[in-house]
Structure formats: structure tokens, C-alpha cells
């Protein structure tokens, strides 16, 4: 079947967006659409210009024997800030204040539209990085990790307090909770989960002291691999605790008044 240009553009857009960071060869497209190489090259040029103009990402072209086309999710910084500010409006509600200085955000990271934007924002920080895994700890960080995994087209690793039988033998570490240093926790991951010399991004939903992130980093180090970034959806700034500077957040809780029901929330450290 031969496709008209309009049909090719629609189908090609869907194919690229659904497969970010995947290299398609020119032959893949000429075979799929029954079109000449010159026509496909013109199609890709149209998509590249449109994606860039609309702030949807970039379509890279590679020449040579192993060349082809690749879609890279990349949101402009001003658009990233606009998206996070829309999330902040949802958080700025006195009903979200929980005992112990926590903020209820579970409903936000369950919304597909919010997760999709979070994934694109975080993926935009790594347009040219060869990332191998996204790692989080069960359970609240899983949706965020999977959203980022989709945009970077890499696997999600889930560390657990207790491993499941189906995961086989595991590697475990003990780590201290930053909010309660006397509380020692356990974290495990499958022994075959990470290839040596891999590049890993760590993500979690909420942070006060950074103990969980440190625990995940210890696991990554066991596999002789490298943590290239550490992301948190929501950070609660506590004057009594110092958050590691290399952990970046999308949203920051700078203060709250339990009596008046006031939450001071703003852009996270990713935008400092």
C-alpha cells in the first residue's frame, strides 16, 4: 500500500512519539510506506521543523550506513516551568497537609496527564545521554519512574524492602532514615537487575532528608555502575536537615502553617 504524504506524516508522527530514543533507518520508512528515499527525507524535514516549532521535541537525522531518524523528547525550559507551575496550583491546598510535615500528593502522581508531563520534563534533562536504567523504590515512586522510562525508552528498576520470590537471588543493603537516624531500613534488588558499568537515574516521589536516595545509590554502586542524576517530585525543605545538593526536585515545599492551613510551595531545585 502506498501512502499519501499526509497519511505518512500522521503515521510517522505516531511511530516516532511512541518510540522515543529509538533509531529508525531510512529503509524502515521506505518499506513501510512504499515511498522513495527522497520523499521520506522531505517528510522527516517537515516533522523536524514542526516538532521544534511546537516545542514537542527534536527529530535527529544521522547519515551513514547506520544512520536514520530518532525522536528525542525535549520540552523548552519555559514550557517546563509552566507545566510545573500548573502542578503547584494543585498542591497549594490546605487539605493536603498531613501530620508529621508531609504533603498529600499521591493523587497527583496517579493522574496520567501529570505523569506524562513529569516524564517529559525529566527526560528533557537528558537529550544526549545514554541512560541504561531508571531506578526507584517501591511503591510511590514507581509511576514517576515508569513515566521517565517511557520517555527515555529504558527499563525501570524497583528496589523493595523485601524481595519477591520471582526475582530470584537478591542484593541488599541497610540504610538509615534521615528523618530518624536510629531507624535502619532494608532495601533489595535482583542480583541480575543491573549490568556492570551502567548509567542509572534515581527517582522518588517525596524527600525530607534523602536517606532513600542514598540507599538506592549504594545498591547501584554494588553493580559497579554510575548514578547520573537524582530526581524527586516533591521536596520538603527542613531547616534542621540538609538535603544533598545533587538531588533535584520539581516542586519545593518551603514552609507550612498547620494552624492557618497555609502551604508555601514553589518551583523545585531543578529550576534554581
Describe, in plain words, how this protein is organized in 3D.
Homodimer. This is Pur operon repressor. One of its GO terms (biological process) is negative regulation of purine nucleobase metabolic process. The chain has 272 residues and is α/β, with parallel strands linked by helices. It has two domains: 5-73, Winged helix-like DNA-binding domain superfamily/Winged helix DNA-binding domain (Arc Repressor Mutant, subunit A), CATH 1.10.10; 77-267, Rossmann fold, CATH 3.40.50.2020. Helix content is 33%, strand content 27%. The chain contains seven helices and twelve strands. It has helices at residues 5-17, 26-33, 37-54, 77-91, 112-123, 142-152, 211-222; strands at 58-62, 68-72, 97-98, 102-103, 133-137, 156-159, 170-176, 184-190, 199-207, 226-236, 247-257, 262-267. The strands form four sheets. A six-stranded mixed sheet has the order 6-5-9-10-11-12, with helices on both faces. The protein is globular. The relative contact order is 0.12.
Amino acid at each position: 500500500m502506498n501512502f499519501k504524504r499526509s497519511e505518512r506524516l500522521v503515521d510517522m508522527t505516531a511511530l516516532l512519539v511512541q518510540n522515543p530514543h529509538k533509531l529508525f533507518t531510512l529503509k524502515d520508512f521506505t518499506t513501510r510506506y512504499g515511498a522513495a528515499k527522497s520523499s521520506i527525507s522531505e517528510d522527516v524535514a517537515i516533522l523536524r521543523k514542526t516538532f521544534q516549532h511546537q516545542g514537542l521535541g527534536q527529530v535527529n537525522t544521522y547519515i551513514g550506513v547506520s544512520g536514520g531518524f530518532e525522536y528525542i523528547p525535549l520540552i523548552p525550559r519555559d514550557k517546563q516551568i509552566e507545566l510545573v507551575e500548573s502542578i503547584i496550583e494543585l498542591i497549594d491546598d490546605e487539605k493536603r497537609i498531613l501530620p508529621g510535615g508531609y504533603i498529600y500528593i499521591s493523587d497527583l502522581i496517579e493522574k496520567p496527564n501529570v505523569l506524562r508531563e513529569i516524564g517529559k520534563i525529566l527526560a528533557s534533562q537528558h537529550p544526549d545521554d545514554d541512560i541504561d536504567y531508571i531506578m526507584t523504590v517501591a511503591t510511590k515512586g514507581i509511576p514517576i519512574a515508569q513515566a521517565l522510562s517511557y520517555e527515555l525508552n529504558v527499563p525501570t528498576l524497583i528496589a523493595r524492602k523485601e524481595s519477591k520470590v520471582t526475582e530470584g537471588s537478591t542484593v541488599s543493603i541497610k540504610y538509615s532514615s534521615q528523618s530518624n537516624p536510629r531507624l535502619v531500613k532494608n532495601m533489595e534488588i535482583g542480583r541480575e537487575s543491573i549490568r556492570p558499568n551502567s548509567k542509572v537515574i534515581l527517582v522518588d516521589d517525596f524527600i525530607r532528608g534523602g536517606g532513600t536516595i542514598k540507599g538506592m545509590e549504594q545498591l547501584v554502586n554494588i553493580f559497579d555502575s554510575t548514578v547520573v542524576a537524582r530526581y524527586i517530585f516533591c521536596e520538603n525543605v527542613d531547616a534542621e536537615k540538609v538535603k544533598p545538593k545533587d538531588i533535584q526536585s520539581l516542586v519545593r515545599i518551603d514552609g507550612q502553617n498547620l494552624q492557618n492551613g497555609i502551604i508555601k510551595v514553589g518551583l523545585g531545585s531543578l529550576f534554581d
